[in-house]
Amino acid sequence: MLRNNKGYLLLEAMLGVLLISAVCSICLPFIYVAYQEQKASKELLYAMTEVDLAAAKNSEGQEEATEKEWSQDGIRYELKTRKGVTDEYEICITFNGSNHKEYTTCASSY
Q1: In 14-40, which positions are buried (b, 16+ CB within 10 angstroms) versus exposed (e)?
Q2: pLDDT tens per residue, range 45-59
Q3: In the prediction, which pLDDT does 32 show?
């Protein structure tokens, strides 16, 4: 009688679902971390671009504010300009990324 059984048993289907869910539960946390790191790298690239623009303005003689804060896409950026011992200016941007790490990027200009 069992020779013509061409279908799957319920147990086989449940084992397949269990195997797929186990693989997903192992892989999804790593995918989420990679996604968060990608977002943080985009935020860091934006901050580096802003530092370069502020350094260019400062070197051309256009005075930029010594302290400035703004938000973009839910991230609060903080720009600070400090004058060194020589005529060198250090411009830094600090922010907390979407992955909850603190980032600081700096540039120097004369």
Answers
A1: eeeeeeeeeeeeeeeeeeeeeeeeeeb
A2: 888 888 888 878 877
A3: 92
Amino acid 108: pLDDT: 80
Please write down the HEC assignment for all residues of the chain. CHHHCCCCCHHHHHHHHHHHHHHHHHHHHHHHHHHHHHHHHHHHHHHHHHHHHHHHHHHCCCCCCCEEEEEECCEEEEEEEEECCCCCEEEEEEEECCCCCEEEEEEEEC
pTM of the model: 0.68
Q: Find all residues with CB under 8 Å of 24, minimum gap 6, and list them.
A: none
Greatest extent of the chain over all pairs of C-alpha atoms, in Å: 94
What pLDDT, on the 0 to 100 scale, is given for residue 73? Answer: 83
**Residue 107 · residue 54 · CB < 8 Å:** yes
